Amino acid sequence: MTHLLLILSLAACTKKASDADAQFESQVRESSLMSEKVNDEGLVEQRIDMNGDARADVFNYYREGADDGPRRMVRKETDLNMDGRVDVRSWFEDTGSLEKEELDGDFDGRVDWVDHYRSGKRA
Ligand SMILES: [Ca+2]
Ligand SMILES: [Ca+2]
């Protein structure tokens, strides 16, 4: 029974993600960088408006590279349904591969799904 539930929730999660992806793709064309500043954590915070309504929907957090090396993405937050609340948070390892991802699949402001990754693969 537990196993079946897991499969069902997996399927539901996958479907929602792909719908959101399609919405996301169609809005990428209008995306624009709103601001870029160093935040309290000492990370470079980029705010990106994906749908042209002057409200940020994607937040990228970077750590500046040492010795003018390339900056590295530490965290990415995305408001998938553009309601002003972040629905997906992703953390990245030093290698650039995904470390952890939190997803609010039904957009109620609570995290429904947490994925942990090891070497870029879901664990
Ligand atoms: Ca927006
Ligand atoms: Ca949202």
TL;DR of this structure?
The protein has 123 residues and is of the alpha+beta class.
What order do the helices and strands come in, and which of them pair?
Layout: H1 2-28, E1 32-38, E2 44-49, E3 58-63, E4 72-78, E5 88-92, E6 98-103, E7 113-118, E8 121-122
Antiparallel strand pairs: 1-2, 2-3, 3-4, 4-5, 5-6, 6-7, 7-8
What number of structural domains do the residues give?
1
How many strand elements? Answer: 8
SSE pattern: HEEEEEEEE
* Main structural class: alpha+beta
Beta-strand content estimate: 35-45%
Give the overall form. Answer: globular
**Roughly what percent helix?**
10-25%
Strand order of the biggest β-sheet: 1-2-3-4-5-6-7-8
Please outline the major beta sheet. Answer: 8 strands, antiparallel
Distance between the termini: 22 Å
Bound molecules: calcium ion
List the total number of helices: 1
What low-confidence regions span 5 or more consecutive residues with pLDDT below 50? none
What's the average pLDDT?
85
CA-based gyration radius: 16 Å
Verbal overview:
With 123 residues, the chain is α+β, with helices and mostly antiparallel strands. 22% of the residues lie in helices and 37% in strands. It contains one helix and eight strands. The protein has one helix at 2-28, and strands at 32-38, 44-49, 58-63, 72-78, 88-92, 98-103, 113-118, 121-122. β7 and β8 (121-122) form a beta hairpin. The mean pLDDT is 85. One calcium ion binds at residues 79-81, 83, 85, 87, 107.
